[in-house]
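User: Could you check the structure of this?
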Amino acid sequence: MHRYRTHTCGSLTEAQVGETVRLSGWCHRIRDHGGVLFIDLRDHYGLTQVVVDPDSPAFAPTEKVRAEWVVRFDGKVRLRPEGTENLDLATGKIEIYATELEVLGPAAELPLPVFGEQDYPEDIRLRYRFLDLRRERIHNNIMTRGRIIDSLRQRMKGQGFFEFQTPILTASSPEGARDFLVPSRIHPGKFYALPQAPQQYKQLIMMSGFDRYFQIAPCFRDEDPRADRLPGEFYQLDLEMSFVEQEDVFAAVQPVITGVFEEFAGGKPVTKDWPRIPYAEALRKYGSDKPDLRNPLVMQNVSEHFRGSGFKVFARMLEDPKNEVWAIPAPTGGSRAFCDRMNSWAQGEGQPGLGYIIFDEVPDPETFLPKTLEEIFAAARPGEHPGVIENYRNLVGRGPVANNIGRLQSVNLAMKLGLKKGDAAFFVAGDPAKFYKFAGLARTRVGEELKLVDHDRFELAWIVDFPFYEWNEDEKKIDFSHNPFSMPQGGLDALNGQEPLSIKAFQYDIACNGYEIASGGIRNHRPEAMVKAFELAGYDEQTVIDRFGGMYRAFQYGAPPHGGMAAGIDRIVMLLCGVTNLREISLFPMNQQALDLLMGAPSDVTAKQLRELHIRLNLPQK
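Assistant: Sure, the predicted structure tokens are below.
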């Protein structure tokens, strides 16, 4: 018999009844039922119930055992008594009648329980992560993560991609976040950087004549942590392809991502035919470049209904041509209590409030100039079926906005937004560049509060046509908005002839349920176009050579058109596991202060180590 086990704790069934077996594992739960001890023994593979009665030689030592002790039991497999089966367990029809116990590893008093899913402070969970990882839910999440990565690998290889590994120690480059720097002992005063992404290397792989590259790439960015972004490091499915246009990348990537979501969605619907939403349209309709399409609400520009109206606050704003009024429809939201809650929420977000209209039906339409209404209806909806007109004939808007713009415009708004009795609409006004994010948050809030969001599905979409440049207000200059290595739409001609902020790029994201899960682009592979693109952002050719010399040289010697993208593995796993915090799907994450509480990192180093690296500390004053 094997020293520790003949079977795992998840493998025994009725087929082994009568056999003598040996199991090893953790004591998950211990129960004393009238002098008979029941131990749920747990290992990586499952649970098996062990029974120890007072006649067994194992009884006395088992009485001393506590939760999470690691033990070995020998015993005979038998059927559970009728009525005591646990059909939720693979081993739920059998139990082990124990005859021998060996303690392999006693456990001290636990700082957090492993049995059950009680919510414990994050710092305790991370300090004792090895205990936290024993808990069923997070243990299953980590295993799901591994299976998702295996599936991604198989699907990428099925699409003709080959897996490569790129260097971890590399040169610092401006990729949008702070680098983690590694001092060089051999070259005093110089530093390596951990890669924020394998961007330049994967493009150089294309320059080297390989055709389809991918890897499960570790990436390092010195960014502040968030619930959907781990501090320090993360993993991405990184890929690049030669001799491709944007459509070719979409055709290769979409089946991989769709297939993985379908495989691990647990039966939830997954978008098969992904919509393609231009960046500007995404901002206008959803207030986000990573819209949650499970939320059916679509915002609209309703400025024409307020221009010159009696609602002077909005009318005055609209005298500035860059200002607009956007409407957020709220089906079933037509109650004063809900509208007041939304107004209070907006004030909590630092806004003056949210204008709104509540749509009601009134008993006597004759008092509301039906002839004029007919004219308004006809103008608003040319050729509309009379039955639809009838739905709005008795509608009236209620609230300060409606009182000031009048019934006709209120009804017109209801028609434009597709709203009816019992619905409401909220309004945001000003410069869309400044308010679109708040409008998007309001859309999300309305959808969640009114329970309009279908949480049991995965809605995927391509976001396309990102602006190539953006205005940096702090430095009063043009900056790259997305990825400096992307191809501008129109190529060198656009860089030479178009107003820079009007140039769009061959850049694209994948959005899923309100998260950006992938980002990429077709690359700018012509050296003269690369230099011109950086020149418009304030970098001269020498700076390009100094910062990106390897790629710049490679472009001089026959560069193929190429493109690719990178998908965030952590976020994909988070979505498929149904959690909202990346720490729930990562083995040993840091906390919100970027501290590894288990290993004690970052830590002090010795004076000798600093001398070897030619480094002297200049710490901030406390």
